[in-house]
Amino acid sequence: MRLEGKTVLVTGSTDGVGRLVAVRLGAAGAEVLVHGRDRQRGEAVVAGIKAKGGAKARFYEADLASLAAVRELVGAVESEHARIDILINNAGIGPGGSGARRESSADGCELRFAVNYLAGFLLTRLLLAKLRGSAPACIVNVASLGQHPIDFEDVMLTRGYTGSRAYAQSKLAQIMFTIDLAEELAGSDVSANSLHPATYMDTTMVRLGGITPISTVDEGAEAILNLAIGADGGRVSGLFYNGKRPARANDQAYDVAARGKLRALSLQLTSLG
Questions:
Q1: Residue 55 pLDDT class (50, 70, 90 cuts)
Q2: For a surface tag, which of 25, 62, 144, 189 has the fewest beta carbons within 10 Å of its beta carbon?
Q3: Between the CA atoms of 95, 97, 102 and 107, what dihedral angle is there, to the nearest 10 degrees?
């Protein structure tokens, strides 16, 4: 698919699978908005996109551990771009090693919940009008097969914390949000899907977790691009994929009451409610 005239925002695109997705979208003709925390790496990705024939690319620096930074990112993107055709929420932090300690975001939320889920929730909601105005458009949330039900009595995991549980809870939250979003967007020609791109890709996140990679970033990128511009892109909505195939998420994802609780909490935490 040629993407001339299309604008794509890929969060967490200065490394790993996000970087490869950004480069391939640029090569397909899209204007790519590269996001990350490290300006030097971000500018290197922009240069790489242009070197491979991408006509337009720009880097946006933002630490998604801060909701204020998310709002600043949205403000910069909206002021400089008339449209957003594809939003890929890829940024995230892994579970860490076996001794991972509980950390808090700038806003006092459990860090993995904040970065992996809440930042993407706020970013998407603030960009929703622009996505609707650019229809047909699509939203792809990069989640995981690693999912853990949310305990709404202790969402921030102040008791019995483990990095793996925090990570898995944040990824299930992404999927729950995606299903809700797809229902809201029904009939708008804006799709929303989530996926597990590939298992233990050869990325910094996986290596820092002390895990031996068993798949490539190329496999993960192909799965993400399938939902963004590939065979299934724009043709399905509200689904969770394992690679390139539809799959079933944790049962809580399909619990309407649980999704309602998550929605209410998320609106409260982001001051949108």
A1: confident
A2: 189
A3: -50
